[in-house]
Amino acid sequence: MDFASEDRAMSLSPDEYSLLTDLYQLTMTACYVGEGIEDKPASFELFTRKLPDNFGYLIAMGLTQALDYLENLKFNSSQIEQLKSLGIFRNVNHRFWSVLAEGTFSGNVWAVPEGTAVFANEPILRIEAPLWQAQIVETYLLNTINYQTLIATKAARMRDAAGPDAKLLEFGTRRAFSPQASLWAARAALGAGFDGTSNVLAALKLGRKPRGTMAHALVMAIAAIDENEDAAFEAFHHYFPGAPLLIDTYDTLKAAQRLAEQVKAGKIKVQGVRLDSGDMVELSKQVRSLLPEVEIFASGDIDEVEIARLKGAEAPINGYGIGTKLVSGTPVNGVYKLVEIDGIPVMKESSSKVTYPGRKQIYRLMEGGKMKGDRLCLIDESESINPSSIGLLQLVMKDGKLVNQPEPLAAIAERTAASVASLPPECRRFDYPILPTIEISEKLANLSQNVSKSTEVK
Question: Which stretches make up the Nicotinate phosphoribosyltransferase N-terminal domain (predicted)?
Answer without folding.
Answer: 19-146
